Amino acid sequence: MTKLDHCNIRTFDLEATVDFYTDVVELRDGEFPGSRHMGAWLYDSTDRPILHVIAIDRKDPEAALGRIRERLGSLGGSLDLASMTGTGTIDHIAFECSDYSAMEKKLQGRGLKYTSSDVPSINLRQLFVNDPNGVTLELNFR
After folding, report:
1. Are 5 and 44 contacting, i.e. CB atoms less than 8 angstroms apart?
2. What pLDDT is recorded for position 10?
3. Are the beta carbons of 5 and 92 closer than 8 angstroms?
4. C-alpha to C-alpha distance for 39 and 90, rounded to whole angstroms
5. Please, what is the end-to-end C-alpha distance for the chain in angstroms?
6. Contact 127, 103 (CB under 8 A)
7. pLDDT confidence tier of residue 79, bands split at 50, 70 and 90
8. Cβ neighbours of residue 9 under 8 Å, at least 6 residues apart?
């Protein structure tokens, strides 16, 4: 692991969440690869995206939760809407890493269940694994 890449939270109120983090924490609302109704990326003072916010529509929560399940499967943690308060809204923590092959071997060697994803458009390979507490980790290799 080389550094913390970003954190991801789920919210029922995207605009209030973006407003809080842009006003109070002074992050910048920036480019997001998708439509605004799906979420937002908030950037730090160095123009690095560090907070990914997933919008959950109370009227159609399954739309966003289905995308989470599709990408992470059982590694996505509890998708129970009742748990969407406090730290239950944390979706995952991402770390920037090096040496994809070595990490994959380490996960296999420990017998850990994981999933992988490639994002060719931004030259990114990812591994997703849960820590012993069930927190989903996104390991990014650029």
Report:
1. no
2. 84
3. no
4. 14
5. 12
6. yes
7. low
8. 17, 51, 52, 53, 54, 89, 90, 91
Residue type, 49: P
According to the model, what pLDDT value does residue 51 have?
Answer: 92
Residues 137 and 129 sit within 8 Å (Cβ to Cβ): yes
Residue 64 CB: number of other CB atoms within 10 A?
Answer: 19
- Domain of residue 137: give its range: 3-141
- Per-residue pLDDT at 126 exceeds 90: yes
Alpha carbons within 13 angstroms on the beta-carbon side of residue 73 total: 9
Q: How many domains does the structure of the chain reveal? A: 1
Q: Identify the bridge partners of residue 116 per DSSP, sorted by sequence position.
A: 127
- Which residue, among 62, 64, 46, 48, has the nearest Cα to 9 in the 3D structure? 64
| Contact status, residue 16 vs residue 9, Cβ threshold 8 Å | no
* CATH number of the domain to which 133 belongs: 3.10.180.10
Q: Which residue has the tokens 């931004």?
A: 122
The model's pLDDT over 23-57, given as tens digits with 9 standing for 90+, comes to 878 899 998 877 777 899 999 999 999 998 988 88
Give the range among 12-16, 17-21, 68-72, 78-82 with minimum mean pLDDT: 78-82
